[in-house]
Amino acid sequence: MSRLPKVNELGFFEIRLESIGGLGANLAGKMLSEDGVVGNGLNGVGFSSYGSEKKGSPVKAYIRFCDPETNIRDTTPIERPHVVGIFHDALLKTIDCASGVYPDSTILVNSQRSPDELREIMKINGGTIAVVNATEIALEEQTKVNTAMLGALYRILNFLDPDSMKDTIRRTFEKKYPHFVEPNIRTFDRGFHEVEFMTFAPDEGSMPRPFKRHEPVLGYETQPIGGTVINPGNSILKDLSISRAGMLPHFHDDKCINCAACDTACPDFCFVWEEKADKRGRPQMFLKGIDYQYCKGCLKCVQACPVEALTEAREYNDGYADRNRVPHLFDLAAQN
């Protein structure tokens, strides 16, 4: 039986996974809790929290482990995690993923940034930051981010046997998707070996970071009379960039014939047009570029383009989308 390195006042070792729909955090949480119980002899529970079950929506997965003699009578969301797994570093732009961590907690981030950069972004006082480029691994192995993140988590959770997780991966995929077994085991191994760590000593007397529960600005007590939503243009203010799993369309202006096939195929109105005179002086709409704020990387536009003016590209470097973004022309989005 595995021995837990630390527990809270109720006897639990707690893990929280922060993600978005489409990256596989829900399945990763189920596999992790299953392997802790079946493969390592612990008592445990795993459950998830999410709204609409679709790509791009927020997802949180919670895992609790304890000794077999301890009863689990708690299925509340985890507010004080010993380990946090962040499945996409773009989440740091919108939510406080490190909310509630201890001064010695470990935070695993799928990112190309350095631990020092991530510490600055998350405003972490102390603890360990682990970084793995799970998106790149998943693209190269043609799998999903979740098994690369599980591999990295098993370097952190050294009380769990990585070979038992490989057995769990086989059980999960071999019946319905047998061709995914070996690629996912390779992805798990790469995540295990490619994760990097950096530990920061907390200031003396540091207290656990306070947990912040998100509360909407307009609730039942503050909603305007009649239930009016006064925030203008909710769809305009959205940011789908977090939904991308490492791929995005690249626009080649010199090849474009302005046929608008891409705009017809795009589900999120990413393409920005402007009216100019054509060669004969007649007004015509010309494609100006892509507003990557609204692009979730589905690449339907690449498939629709008849002249290869749009090609799929890996989002290798942080800031690629920001550097190449052409903002929409309406006033409400100009400031985003």
In short:
The protein is of the alpha/beta class and 336 residues long. The chain is 26% helix and 21% strand.
Q: Termini separation (Å)?
A: 52 Å
* Strand element count: 11
Largest sheet: 7 strands, mixed
Q: For the CA atoms, what is the radius of gyration?
A: 23 Å
The ordered H/E elements are EHEEEEHEHHHHEHEHEEHEH
Structural class: alpha/beta
Mean pLDDT: 87
Please work out how many helical segments DSSP would assign: 10
Low-confidence stretches: none
Q: How much helical structure, as a percent, in the residues?
A: 25-40%
Q: Keyphrases for this structure?
A:
single chain; 336 residues; alpha/beta; seven-stranded mixed sheet; two-stranded antiparallel ribbon; 10 helices; globular
Description:
By secondary structure, the chain is of the alpha/beta class. Helices cover 26% and strands 21% of the residues. The protein contains 10 helices and 11 strands. The strands form 3 sheets. It has a 7-stranded mixed β-sheet with strand order 2-3-1-4-5-6-7, sandwiched between helices. A two-stranded antiparallel sheet has the order 8-11. The chain has a two-stranded antiparallel ribbon with strand order 9-10. A hairpin with a 7-residue loop joins β2 and β3 (58-66). The longest helix is centred in the N-terminal third of the chain and has 15 residues, at 25-39. The mean pLDDT is 87.
